[in-house]
Amino acid sequence: MSTTRLDHPALDAVLATAATLLNMEVVFLGGLTDDSFTFEKVHAQADWPEIREGDTRARTDSFCHRLLAGAATMTSNAAESPDYADVPARAPLGVTSYVGVPVRGAEGAVVATLCGIDRGGVSVSDEAIAVLRQLADVISAQLGPLAADKVVISRSPEGGWEVGGDRTEDLTSAMVLADLLAGEITPAGRPARSDAPLDEVAQLRLSVKQLEHALAARVVVEQAIGVLTERQGSSPRDAFERLRKVARSRGRKVHELAREVVASASDHAVPLPPELAGRR
Predict the structure, then answer these.
(1) pTM for the full model?
(2) Which among 262, 280, 269 has a CA at the least distance from the CA of 218?
(3) What does the alpha-carbon distance between residue 98 and residue 71 come to, in Å, rounded to a whole number?
């Protein structure tokens, strides 16, 4: 699995949501090759010295290898499980409970696993596992082309990010995503809120849908940042602040104005506020 897109607030948000969903000590993104397993990204809610981000072991020693070979999605007592009792990593790591789902690439091949582990007995409901699968789909979009209008976000060799070929920064990306998740903008198609009280899993399912829509809206905002950065000779962060300021002053949605900025890159007839139309 490529590790070029793991240092990103989108994955942090997914793992934090999964940790709340599962209520397990550690949630992680596992990377597998033909021979090895790696704790690629770890979200820990308790100190577990044997679990460290970046640690690699033999693939056949891992719970995830068994999962992908057809073992049960979840166990709350690994020592008594016919699928997981003899996993080589079980006793050394002290794992009692495990749950995992595959993360698939665009063509359906497994590129990673999204998992939770605990040293105590923790049962995970079928409903919660269904939400975990939704979170795995969000990760699939982030690890592969995260696209709206076929825009690809990728890590730049010099550091920072490239959005559709335009350079941005980790801080800017984090700021954009934070704004979206905070509800500053409402992407089109966002699921409607219900006045009826929701149980915990339903609330988390709604959070996943909102995250999916926020990620889709973020792509066009970051593409607009790239356009403004080149057009106005500014830094990506300054471009984002200008876009947000203009949207607020005109009572516009940031992502709607961003779409117009992107469209103006290929169609100069698209009207834009003067602050965004040309070089300062």
Answers:
(1) 0.62
(2) 262
(3) 11
Q: Are 14 and 165 in contact (CB under 8 A)?
A: no
User: Which domains are assigned to the chain?
Assistant: 9-143 (3.30.450.40), 153-277 (no CATH)
Cβ proximity of 255 and 183 under 8 Å: no
For the segment 117-163, what is each residue's pLDDT rounded down to a tens digit? Answer: 999 999 998 888 988 998 888 788 666 533 333 333 344 455 444 44
Model confidence over 190-226: pLDDT tens digits?
444 445 444 666 666 666 666 666 666 777 888 888 8
**Residue 138 phi, psi (nearest 5):** -65, -45
Q: What is the distance between the alpha carbons of residues 122 and 128, in angstroms, rounded to a whole number? A: 12
* Three-state DSSP class for residue 110: strand
Do the beta carbons of residue 203 and residue 131 sit within 8 Å?
A: no
